Amino acid sequence: MNTINPLKYLGFICLSLVHFVVMGQEEESIEWTSDAKLTWRDFKGKPTNTRAAAITASGISYRFSTISNGKEIELDFEVSTFFYPNQSWYQPSLCDEVILGHEQLHFDISELFARKMRKQLQTTRFTKNVKAEVKAIYRKINKELSDFQNRYDDETNYSRNLEAQLEWNEEIAKTLGRN
Fold this sequence. Notes:
The chain is 41% helix and 22% strand. Strand 3 (52-69) and strand 4 form a beta hairpin. Helix 2 (97-123) runs parallel beside helix 4 (162-176). It has helices at 6-9, 97-123, 130-156, 162-176, and strands at residues 13-18, 30-31, 52-69, 72-83, 89-90. The chain is of the alpha+beta class.
């Protein structure tokens, strides 16, 4: 098991930028898949915060269409999770595999909330105000995602608390069905 030298990371923060996008933007992205893992080569942005070791820009996007059968509104939708290489960056002198794993988990957490949104869209009975209702679900999920990402950073101390980091790794992997 790798050990962390806490002094190496003192004063440096590993942050996650939860990036919310609207479908249709022409931006380089990597869609989340269960078998793909991020590498440092995926982080193509330029560092903008000297206190942070790395930034992961990831988020959820969606699109939908509707079919109306009189009173019933059927929703056909797609919810995806993306990583944005040009907005994600790292400082090589400060980063190692533990931090890369921490950043991967930010991306994985975005996928957890995409799944939550998919489930909510599947189980919601929509009215003629479907556009506003879907948008409200998206906003609610994104707020929960942001809060969860912040909790993750707080509890792991931005990957510096290795024991907590390993617990989060295990829990998220289990929830995603990777164990």
